[in-house]
Amino acid sequence: xxxxxxxxYDLPNTAEMLVGKILLGMARFVPLCIxxxxxxxQRFYQSVRGTDPEKTQGDSSKKWDAIIARCDFEGKRVxxxxxxxxxxxxxxxxxxxxxxxxxxxxxRTLVIAHFLARSQGLxxxxxxxxxxxxxxEKGEHFDCVLCLSVLHHLxxxxxxxxxxxxxxxxxxxxxxxxxxxxxxxxxxxxxxxxIEIPYKYRDDVSRRSADFSRFxxxxxxxxxxxxxxxxxxxxxARNRSIKDRVLYASYV
Length: 252
Ligand SMILES: C[S@@+](CC[C@H](N)C(=O)[O-])C[C@H]1O[C@@H](n2cnc3c(N)ncnc32)[C@H](O)[C@@H]1O
What we know:
By secondary structure, this protein is of the alpha/beta class.
């Protein structure tokens, strides 16, 4: 097991990936009553069941409200990279998406996502994968790709403004550019990729200097035809003094 560059999450090696895929496949044979008991003992990143949004990054439904205001999911093929417990996979299906694939690097989280989906009678597909190698078929495209609060975990620091502007973080910038190109390759022509980037500030000076539109220039230089800053969403109050959580729409 290795860690993400952010050191926040475990990433599976090849053997763990194989075992994780088998265990995830077996989750569908678990009776719903047992799945319910299992869910009651879990802690969630997303606000799915009784999670106190102030103890996490915020109320996931508020993030979804900010996205759904800009994105039409009706009849769309949706990919959610780093889907965690699958809250947005289920929300996309409820908003009319025709097909939803949620990918995450942690099989345990995907088992939770699978149980939650089943408990609501919904059928997204879940796959174990480590972005950018997420195991989709070569050339497979999606009308909408969600990459929410994931990209910064590929970087050594959470301060996106420093990554974009400080030559000391040029390796992270290279990783960012590779990731944006990989995202671009997953979006169908006419489609959109919604990216969430948390900007973490060291002090007031770094907060004041952050220019969110700088990221849109990176997005366009990595092959998207256009990009827009959608703005922040109403995340947990305790974090707002040190972070902005900015949503971007990147068009192909
Ligand atoms: C901060 S959470 C965000 C979850 C969700 N996207 C949201 O916005 O509520 C990051 C998620 O991405 C997953 N993750 C981290 N690095 C990943 C990678 N390289 N590939 C796939 N998933 C990853 C983690 O396991 C975790 O579930």
